[in-house]
Amino acid sequence: MSEIRDWLEGLRSLGMRPGLEVTSILLSRLGMPHMKFPCIHVAGSNGKGSLCVILSNSFTLSGISCGLFTSPHLCFVEERVRIDGVPISSDDFDKVLFKVKEAAEMEPVTLPSYYEATFLAAMVAFADAGIDRAVIETGLGGRLDATRLCLADCCVLTEIALEHTDVLGETLGEIAAEKAAIARPTGLFIARWNYDASVRKAIEDAVHRPTHACWWRYDRAMTVPFTKADESHRPVPDIEGFDGWSSFQQDAARLAEITLRYFSSPLTNVEPKEMVSSAVMHTVWPGRMQWLEYEGVPILLDAAHNPSGMEKVCEQLRVQMENDIHPTPGIIIIGSTPQNDIVEFLNPLIELIVEGEVEHIIVTEPQKGRRDAIPSAEIVLELQAQGVLSKIEQHPLPEDALTRALEIAKSDPSQPILAFGSLYLVGNLLEVMGLNDVESMTVLRPAPEKKYWT
Predict the structure, then answer these.
(1) Nearest Cα to 65, choosing from 95, 30, 36, 97?
(2) Which CATH number describes the domain made up of 3-282?
(3) Contact by Cβ (8 Å): 316, 434
(4) Tens digits of per-residue pLDDT, 429-444?
(5) Terminus-to-terminus CA distance in the chain, angstroms?
(6) CB atoms within 10 A of CB 383
(7) Which of 48, 144, 302, 304 is exposed most, by the fewest CB atoms within 10 A?
(8) Residue 38 pLDDT > 90
(9) Domain range 290-432, its CATH number among 3.30.470.20, 3.40.50.720, 3.90.190.20, 3.40.50.670
(10) Helix 48-61 crosses helix 247-261 at what angle (to 10 degrees)?
């Protein structure tokens, strides 16, 4: 490992550090690279990554050079910094990271966390590349997340769920307020509708601005201004063209179209619906309802990492089974980082196991995550306590879990493998399968030979 990568890895010891002061100081020392391009800033509990990649690809396909910052990464750190869908090269990442290191070591020495360093590197890389705009995903929360310093002319809030309660708050309202705090004094703000009035109030209070440019994304394709949130509204026809996508992906696509539609001035001469439709056709978001084939066995990977995410994934799989879109799951690989409520997290999966008559469950432990995985024995005990009758095996190392699942699947070709429960687990499995290269992590593919509107 190079010296600069050693320096980056050493920053992990600083842990998670909410706050804007360090990032603000270092951006100033770096020449304010984040002020050289406008951004769409996205926060939320679920679906924010999918929304970001669809928006980014919509811009690129419309002739607008776009940077994309997401976190965490699946296989390698350069995934966090993409330009027009492609992760920047290792050499380019090292060059911008070296600039960050130089800035950090100026007197007085001001060291960023690992996450802050990758965000700073992204800002420098985007400025150096001369992009037209960027799409930025928050890491944790919003109010104290380093990404809040980006120059945003639009902020979007996706679904809110209970997560990271030790940091963000113990109620949905508290979490919503933290995430909605990304709202800027000017520009567009769009939030996914929440049926809990206290959550809506927390979001509206957190925005703290005139509401004429603040919208609820309500009933799929319809939007409602904050000023009319308590009125009744008639649903409008749904957006078409997303057949086969998961509910999260469909939701993200609809929210992307609404976001582009409500920009105060047109970004291109292309209709937002056309922009998103084209992006959907060309978007591959690794590890999110991703079907692939490995050693002749169909495998589904999804980074369902909280109860809401697990519920949506299992719901989508049930729909696919009922409509014979995909075969009944035969083998499930499950592994997770700590959950606030392991029972709530596993319940949707247990229902899928029972309805799908899943015969084999392999419990593993995601590696290389920010937090240690839930011990596989703990998940096994909970599955057994819930009366799961499937054959359950423990293989703490993901590579061993995949090897065992493939062995079972090859004895019965009708049994696909479903693996979910953690973004880190997905990354572990992609690495084992050799899908941890730049091509596999490029989210815009295949790139069209010409712009779609000509």
Answers:
(1) 36
(2) 3.40.1190.10
(3) no
(4) 999 999 999 999 999 9
(5) 46
(6) 20
(7) 144
(8) yes
(9) 3.90.190.20
(10) 50
